[in-house]
Amino acid sequence: MHEARPLPSNWGPAPGGPARSPATLLDNGRVALDLAARQLRVHGEPAKLGSRAFDLLVALVERRERLVSKQELLELVWPGLVVEENNLQVHVMALRKLLGAQAISTVPGRGYRFTAQVDAGPDAAATALARVGGADDAVADLPGPGQAMQASAPTTTRLIGRDADAAALEALVKEHRLVSVIGAGGVGKSSLARRVLGQTRPAWPHGVAWLDLSALAEAPQVVDAIAASLGLGVAGADARRALAAVLKPYCMLVVLDNAEHLVDEVAAVAAALLAEAPGVHLMVTSQVPLKLGVECLFRVDPLPLPEADSGLDQARGSPPVQLLVERVRAVDRHFVLDPHNLAAIVRTVRRLDGLPLAIEMAAARLPMLGAARLDTALEERFEALASSERATPARQRTLRAAMEWTHGLLGAAEQRIFRRLAVFAGSFGLDAAQAVAAADVDGPWAFVDALSVLVERSLVVIATSEPPRYRLLDTPRAYALECLQAASEEADIRRRHALALRALFEGAAAAHDNGDLRDDEWRAVYLPDLDNANDALAWALVHDGETAVAIAPGLGQALTRSPANRIALWNRTAPLLAGAAALPPLIRARWLCSDATFWAWNKPARSAAAAREAVQLFRQLGDRRGEYRALAALASSGADVASPEAVAAAAAMDALQDPRWPLTLLRLRPQAAIAAARGHVSHERLIEMIEALAALDRMAGREGMIARHIALIHYEVLAGKYEAAIARGARVRQRIQASGSRVPSLGTDMYVLLALLHQGDRAQALVLAPEIWSQSRLYEYHAPIACALALLAAQEGRAEDGARLLGYAERAFERLELTPLAPWRQACELTLSILRQAIDGEALRRAQEEGTRLGDDEVSRVAFGRGRRATWLNAAVDFAPPESDGAAALNSAA
C-alpha cells in the first residue's frame, strides 16, 4: 500500500479546541450553533436570529460537504409552502452579517454552500442528521470541508437483504482501485455505498471522502466539487491532473455518488487519479459503467422477490416484505403482517420489482390506504407513490421523478426503443424486439447497441437463457407505456408486435410440420412467449382477424397443459372462422386441424366437422403432412365407436403415410381405439398397446404423460381393473403435485371416481366427488362427472336424486355438444338399471325431467346434501395396492 504522509495542518479540528455539547453542531470558538436550545451564540451571547434563518443555517451546516440548491433549501426551510426566492436571499444576507461574508458562498444560478471552518464532533453530526430524516437517508459520519479525511464512527444504517452485497463490495473496494456500483434508479446503490464506506473507514490511513454529484449540472464542476469537498484548492489549466497531483501522497477512499449524468467527465477524472495518485481508491455509484479498462463492476440487483403464493413464514423471511413492514411500522407500530394482508403485501412488493425506493414510497402510503387499497392503487403508481422524507433528493421525491431522471439520460434513439419495447408482456427475444422496435434505427447493430444501453441502465434485464431473452421491469414498463402513448405510436407498435408473434408461431409450425422440430422443441419455441401471444391475440381479434387465426394454433399447442385456458382460446377465436372464407387456406387449415385435434375425444361432432374441412384444404394445397394430421383428427373423433368415417380416415392415413415422417405415430392412436371398439383386441391388450405408445411418445418428444395415463385408466375401468385404475390415479396425482405443476388431476380423478363406485367403495367416493365437482365446470367436464354423481346417489338409495342428476347429465352432454365416452355410457346404463328397480317409470321420468332444469349450483345440493368434503389424495394412497405391472409402466412413462 502507498506510504502514508501527514495531512496538511488545515485538515481536521484544531488541537485543544473548546469542549462541545452533544447537541452543538458548530463551535469554532467565536460562534456556536446549539440545536437543543435552537440558538446561535456569538462570543457566548445569543444572536437575534429568526426561526427560518436558524433552519436555513442548520440546513447549510448539515450539508456543508456539498452545494445545496436553492430549490432544496426552499423545501427544507419552508416545507409545503410556496415562497419567493428573495426570501432565501434575505436570510442568507442576515447570516453573513453574523458569521462573516465568507461563511456562505454563492454559486450563481445554482445555490449556496457553507464554507466557514466547522469544528463538530460525531455526536453532534448524528444529532443533526437524525433531526432531518434518519440514518437511512444520510450518512451520519461523512466528512465536511476541513475534515475530509478524518475518521469517525461508522454508519449504522440498516440495510435489509444486503449483508452479502455489503461484504462482497467491501472486499472489492479494498482489492481494486476503481469499483463502480451500478444498478437501476432506486435500487439502493447509495445506501449500500454508505454502509461500505463506514465499514472500510479504518482501512484508509488518510480517511475517506464522499461527494454527491447529483446537484452538479456541468462536467467542469466535477473536479472543483471534489476539491472543495476535500478542502483543497486546485489551480492550473489541467484541473484533473492538478487534483491528482495534490492527492498523490495520500492513501484514501473517495466515493463519487450519482455519477450517471456526468459519466464521461467522471471517467476522465477517475483515469487521472488512477494514473497519478496510486494510493487513492475510488468507488462510483451510477446507473451505467464508466467503461474504463481497470474498472471493476458491482451490479446491485433488486431485492429477491417472494413467490406469488408465499405463506406467512416465507413472506416474513423475504427481504422486500421485511423492508415494507419495517418502514410501515416506523410510523404505525400496530401494523403486523398477517393472513389477512399477506396476499396484498406480497403482490405489492412483486409489482414494485423489489426496488427499495418504490417499496419505501409504498410503505408511506400503506397506513392511510391499507394493504388492499395500496395494491389496487399501484395501477396508478406514478401518481400514488411519493417520498415524504425531507432529505430525499428531488429526483427521488416521486416514482415518476425517478423514472424521468433515468429516461432523460437516454439518447433519442434509446428513448424510442425503450418506449416501443413496452408492448412486450414478460420476456422477449432479440429478433422479435428488432421487428417491433427497430424502425428509424440505423441498422441492426445500432439497435443492439441501444438495447445494451437500456440493459446497462437496468431498464431492461437479461434472463439467463440461451438464446438470451430480455424483459422490462414492471415500473419501467409502465412508464414506457405512457411514453408510447404520448408519442402517438401505440397503434403501429401493437400491430408490429402482433405480426412479430405471428411470424414466430407460423415459422415454428412450419418447422414442426416439416419434421425439423420435435413436439417438445415446438412447445419450447412457444412457451416463453405465452404472455406476448395472448396480448397479440387480444389485439388481433379486434384489428386483424387473419393474424388472430394464424396465432391461435401455436398458442393452443403451448396451452396443452392448461385445458381451461385452451378452451377459452378456442371460444375466443372460433367466431372469426364463421363465414371467413377469405382467410388464406393454409392459415384456416392449420386452425381447423388444431381445433379438430383438441376436441377429438370430447366433442367428436365438432372435431369431425373441422377435420373434414381441414383435410380438403390441405389436399388443395398439396400439403400431404397437413392432410395426414387432419386425417388423424378425423379418425380420432369417431374411434371410440369405430364410426365408418373414422375407419375410412385411418385407412386413408395408411395409404398416405411415409415411413420417414415423424408423424406416423399419429396413426397408432386412433387405430388402437378403433380395434378395441370393433372387438378386435381386448381391453387388456389395448392397455399394453397404450403403454407402448407412451414409450414411443417420449422418443418423439411428446410428453403425453397426462393424456396417456388418462387413456390407460379409461381402459382399465372398461376392463374391470378397478384397483389398478385407482392406484394409477393416486400416483399420477402425487406426481403432479410433487412437480409443483398447476395442472389439475381432474382427468384422472374422474375415472378413479368411477372405479371406486364400481367397487362399491362409496366412502372413498364421497371424499373425492365434491372436490372434482368443484373443478369440473372450469374444464367443461361437469357432464361426465354428473354421471358419476348420479350413480353415487343411486347406490346410496337416493333414487329420485339419482334420477335428477342423470337428467342433468344427459342435458349437459347435449348443451356442451359432447358425446359420452364408453365408461360414462356404461355408468349411465348401470345407474338407470338401479333406478328402475327402485322407483316406478313415471317417477323416474318425472325426476329426470326435473334434472334437466337444474342449475350447476343446484347440482351440488342434490348430490352432496350436507356438503361432504375432504382431501382424497391422502386417503387414496392408503388403500392403493402394491404397484402392478401397469403401475410400473407408469413409472417409466412418467
Question: Could you walk me through the main structural features you see in this protein, from its secondary elements to its overall organization?
Answer:
With 894 residues, the protein is an alpha/beta fold. The protein has 42 helices and 15 strands. A five-stranded parallel β-sheet has the order 9-10-11-8-12, sandwiched between helices. It has a four-stranded antiparallel β-sheet with strand order 1-2-3-4. The two termini are 62 Å apart. Mean pLDDT is 78; it is low at 1-23, 120-156 and 866-894.
- What is the general shape? elongated
Largest sheet: 5 strands, parallel
Number of helices: 42
Given as residue ranges, the uncertain stretches (5+ residues, pLDDT < 50) are 1-23, 120-156, 866-894
Q: Round the Cα radius of gyration to an integer and report it.
A: 37 Å
Number of strands: 15
Largest sheet, spatial ordering of strands: 9-10-11-8-12
Measured as a percent range, the helix fraction is: 55-70%
The proportion of residues in beta strands is 5-15%
- Determine the structural class based on helices, strands and strand pairing: alpha/beta
Overall mean pLDDT stands at: 78
C-alpha end-to-end distance = 62 Å
